[in-house]
Amino acid sequence: MSFFGDIPKLKYEGPETDNEFAFRHYNPDEIVMGKRMEDQLRFAVAYWHSFAWEGGDPFGGRTFDRPWFGNAMDKAKAKADAAFALFERLGQPYFCFHDVDARPEGSSFEEDLKYLQEITDYFAGKMETSGTKLLWGTANMFNHRRWMSGASTNPDPEVYAYAAATVKSCMDATHKLGGENYVLWGGREGYETLLNTDLAAEMDHMGRFLNMVVEYKHKIGFKGTILVEPKPQEPSKHQYDFDVATCFSFLQKYGLENEVKLNIEQGHAILAGHSFEHEIALAQALGVFGSIDMNRNDYQSGWDTDQFPNNVPEVALAYYYIMKNGGFSTGGTNFDAKIRRQSLDAEDLVLAHAGAMDVCARGLKAAAAMIKDGGLEAEVIRRYADWQSDKIKALMDGATLESLSDWVLKEGVNPEPRSGRQERLENYINRFV
Fold it and tell me: Which residues form the signal peptide (predicted)?
């Protein structure tokens, strides 16, 4: 019997169902803003948290006992079998993976490459029969001790070259599997202390590395999007890709703002001192929004707990800004989330995803309703309306400090503050969520 046993394929049964293994809100065929819900949300399972993670945390080791755990190719294939069994039960159209999630750990790069190519072929067969697609692939360059001082920011040029070879192999695998994006997640692209760090050199090395990635994308004809994932810290004291604004500044400095977009995670946004919707809206304003990792942190913990989403109002605001600006292109909703280390059963893994999918579906529908109603957009337009008047447009055309000063004096301008009406808007949001 498979790991998931007789757990059925989940179907939509509506909000009133008492069937635990059914969707209450996620109806893949429901039309939301002109598209099927499945095509708007573009859900993906994170291979690493769901199948490679052993249940450890900073203070304790493995709690899960999975039949595919082990450093051998037969175990890697058993893991893939279990993963695609979960994809089938959930009906999620995509998955995402790191190289080390999928293959055994070899004794050399040559052996790692052989294993990656073998499991890539195995994935290809599973994808063909299941119809599941790859949202994105990436390389794990943070777990192994060789990456303790970073990958593309490592002071050792041999590690830098090893990182380049690793990314090339993972891009090749992603391309072969028809991946729609490739993500660079710099888990240790930062520093622990300035005392031994050359900031300028490390940023230049990282900028050149990312340019090489883009060059290789075009060389092999990869049509997907290159994504960078912002993260502020943990485990590094400071990351060079701290948040959306920092990433955009980095991309501009190295001439990549038209080549690379961002994969934004809710948990990372919170660690950076922002809201998820802020990071999404800013990326869209800067033209670099790509995809999202949907999860949440425990607000009583100071680290990245990667829990499944369960807060509809938070999710609704995230999708409001995504949908208001045209929705996803190549990106989607990757559940970069893991069940708790005490949640041992196969049912826990299925139900965590099912609940998260329902939360996202509710959030998406609330976002669509807000967009259709137009109340938030109308308030923003009202607040900035004076900038659209002919008088102000004429005044601001070629304005200087002197001309504006003359206008204030001539007109006797003495502005009175206007209400931002924040509580009214918060009440408005609650009508939908």
Answer: none
The answer to whether 239 and 233 have CB atoms below 8 angstroms apart is yes
- 265 annotated binding-site participant: yes
Largest distance between two CA atoms of the chain? 85
> Does residue 1 have a pLDDT over 80?
no
Average pLDDT over residues 132-149: 96
CB atoms under 10 Å from CB of 57, counted, come to 11
Q: Domains along the chain? A: 31-373 (3.20.20.150), 386-430 (no CATH)
Ranges of H-type helices in 12-108: 37-41, 47, 73-90, 99-102
426: Cβ contacts below 8 Å, ≥ 6 apart: none
| pLDDT score at 300 | 85
What residues are paired with 181 via a beta bridge?
136, 225
Is 293 annotated among the ligand-binding residues? Answer: yes
Q: What H or E segment, with its residue span, contains residue 40?
A: helix 37-41
User: Model-level pTM?
Assistant: 0.96
Q: What is the DSSP string of 254-265?
A: TT-TTTEEEEEE
Q: How many other C-beta atoms can be found within 10 angstroms of the C-beta atom of residue 344?
A: 15
Q: How many residues does the chain have?
A: 433
88 is in an annotated binding site: no
pLDDT, position 304: 86
Q: How far apart are CA 51 and CA 101, in angstroms?
A: 8
Over residues 259-267, mean pLDDT: 97
What pLDDT score does 234 carry?
A: 78
Retrieve residue 114's tokens: 């052989």
Residue 228 bridge partners (DSSP): 184, 262
For residue range 223-238, what is the model confidence (pLDDT) as tens digits?
A: 999 999 999 987 888 8
Structure tokens at 199: 């900031």
Catalytic residue numbers read 98, 101
- Average pLDDT value for the chain: 96
DSSP 145: G
345 is in an annotated binding site: no
> Does residue 287 have a pLDDT over 80?
yes
Residue 158 known to bind ligand: no
- The Cα 135–Cα 113 span in angstroms is 21
Asked if 150 contacts 209 with a C-beta cutoff of 8 angstroms, the reply is no
The pLDDT score that the predictor gives to residue 302 is 75
CA atoms within 13 A on the CB side of 302: 2
- Enumerate the β-bridge partners of residue 35: 32
Nearest to 307 by CA among 345, 360, 353, 372: 353
